[in-house]
């Protein structure tokens, strides 16, 4: 048994472990492991805190995005309503403009008709006066003819105008 190298390795190992125990190496190793565990726990706590902060920031940005989308939808709806209102006003102004133009054209036409009727009446009156004066001057002579002619002309003009 003492001639086996594995036995001497086992004895050396046991002596080494006892030496480490007597020198307090196990306390140093355990302290180092405890410090490492505390550092890892602190890192995990920081990571958890950062995760929670990131979740809060994400929720805040989602809320802002939703608010911005609602605001954009409100702006679009407002712009559409304003465009419809402006189009309605433009349509009403155009209809009013067309109605006024039509009315103006109709009044010009009526005025032209009235002027044409007056011109026709005046021409008819002048033609009737000319015809009457020609007929009277050929059939009646003298001062009686002049009086009748003046009265007839005045009467025809009053009736035709």
Keywords for this entry:
161 residues, mainly alpha
Task: Walk me through the structure.
This protein has 161 residues and is an all-alpha fold. 94% of the residues lie in helices and 0% in strands. It has one domain (5-160). The protein contains 3 helices and no strands. Helix 2 packs antiparallel against helix 3 (143-160). It is rod-shaped and about 190 Å long. The N and C termini lie far apart (162 Å).
Distance between the termini: 162 Å
List the total number of helices: 3
Q: What portion of the residues fall into strands of 2 or more residues? A: under 5%
Total count of domains: 1
Task: Give, in order, the helices and strands.
Answer: HHH
Gyration radius from CA atoms, angstroms = 61 Å
Helix content: over 70%
Determine the mean pLDDT.
87
Largest sheet, in brief, is: none
Shape, please?
rod-shaped
How many strand elements? 0
Helix-strand makeup class = mainly alpha
Poorly predicted segments: none
Helix and strand arrangement:
Elements: H1 5-23, H2 25-139, H3 143-160
Helix pairs in contact: 2-3
Gist?
With 161 residues, the protein is an all-alpha fold. It contains three helices and no strands. α2 (25-139) runs antiparallel to α3 (143-160).
């Amino acid at each position: 048994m003492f001639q086996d190298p594995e036995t001497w390795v086992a004895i050396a190992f046991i002596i080494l472990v006892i030496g480490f125990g007597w020198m307090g190496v196990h306390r140093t190793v355990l302290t180092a492991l405890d410090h490492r565990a505390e550092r890892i726990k602190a890192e995990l706590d920081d990571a958890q805190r950062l995760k929670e902060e990131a979740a809060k920031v994400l929720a805040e940005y989602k809320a802002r995005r939703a608010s911005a989308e609602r605001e954009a939808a409100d702006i679009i709806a407002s712009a559409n309503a304003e465009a419809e209102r402006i189009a309605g006003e433009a349509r009403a102004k155009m209809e009013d403009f067309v109605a006024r133009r039509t009315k103006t054209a109709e009044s010009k036409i009526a005025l032209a008709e009235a002027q044409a009727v007056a011109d026709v009446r005046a021409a008819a009156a002048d033609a009737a006066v000319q015809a009457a004066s020609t007929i009277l001057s050929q059939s009646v002579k003298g001062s009686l003819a002049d009086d009748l002619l003046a009265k007839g002309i005045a009467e025809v003009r009053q009736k035709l105008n």
